[in-house]
Amino acid sequence: MSTHVFNVEMTCEGCSSAVERVLNRLKGQGVESVSISLPEQKVVVKSTLSGDQLLDVIKKTGKKTTYVGIQ
Amino acid sequence: QELVAVRVPIIGMTCQSCVKSIEGSVSEMPGVHHVKVELSEKAGYFRYDPRVCSVEAIRSHIEDMGFEVPSEN
C-alpha cells in the first residue's frame, strides 16, 4: 500500500468529480482512498496498484496528468 | 453506409471544459463521425458507423472519463 501523487489539469468542479468517480470505482479493487485538491491540481491516491496503473485510469478522463511520485 | 444517430444522457458535466473533453475524446473513437455535447441538456448526440462502433462503446468510453451515463429505456 502506498500513497501516489499526481498533477491533474482540472479546471472545474465537474472535472475533479469526474476524476474522483473513476478512482472511486476502483475502491475495493486496489484503491483505498482518494483525495483531490482542485486549487493545487493535485490527486492523492492510497492504493496497492502501481503508479502506472493509476496514471492510465486518470488519463482516461481525458485530462492532462503527470505522475509526481510516492509520498 | 448509413450512420446511426444516438442521444446519450451524460450526468456530471458542469462546464464547457467537460463538454470539450468529452467531444474531443469521443471524436477520436474509430467510426465516430459526428459529436455534439449539450451541457444544458445533460446529453450528447453522436453519429457513428455501426460496422466499426456501437452505442455501448460510446457509453463505456464516457463512463471511463468519469461521467455517469444512465441507460434510457
TrEMBL record, chain A:
<feature type="domain" description="HMA">
    <location>
        <begin position="1"/>
        <end position="66"/>
    </location>
</feature>
<comment type="similarity">
    <text>Belongs to the ATX1 family.</text>
</comment>
<protein>
    <recommendedName>
        <fullName>Copper transport protein ATOX1</fullName>
    </recommendedName>
</protein>
<keyword id="KW-0479">Metal-binding</keyword>
<keyword id="KW-0186">Copper</keyword>
<keyword id="KW-0143">Chaperone</keyword>
<comment type="subunit">
    <text>Homodimer. Interacts with ATP7B. Interacts with ATP7A. Interacts (via dimer form) with SLC31A1 (via C-terminal domain); this interaction improves ATOX1 stability and controls intracellular Cu(I) levels.</text>
</comment>
<dbReference type="GO" id="GO:0005829">
    <property type="term" value="C:cytosol"/>
</dbReference>
<dbReference type="Pfam" id="PF00403">
    <property type="entry name" value="HMA"/>
</dbReference>
<keyword id="KW-0406">Ion transport</keyword>
<dbReference type="InterPro" id="IPR036163">
    <property type="entry name" value="HMA_dom_sf"/>
</dbReference>
<dbReference type="InterPro" id="IPR051881">
    <property type="entry name" value="Copper_transport_ATOX1-like"/>
</dbReference>
<dbReference type="GO" id="GO:0046872">
    <property type="term" value="F:metal ion binding"/>
</dbReference>
<keyword id="KW-0813">Transport</keyword>
<dbReference type="GO" id="GO:0006825">
    <property type="term" value="P:copper ion transport"/>
</dbReference>
<keyword id="KW-0187">Copper transport</keyword>
<dbReference type="GO" id="GO:0016531">
    <property type="term" value="F:copper chaperone activity"/>
</dbReference>
<comment type="function">
    <text>Binds and deliver cytosolic copper to the copper ATPase proteins. May be important in cellular antioxidant defense.</text>
</comment>
<dbReference type="InterPro" id="IPR006121">
    <property type="entry name" value="HMA_dom"/>
</dbReference>
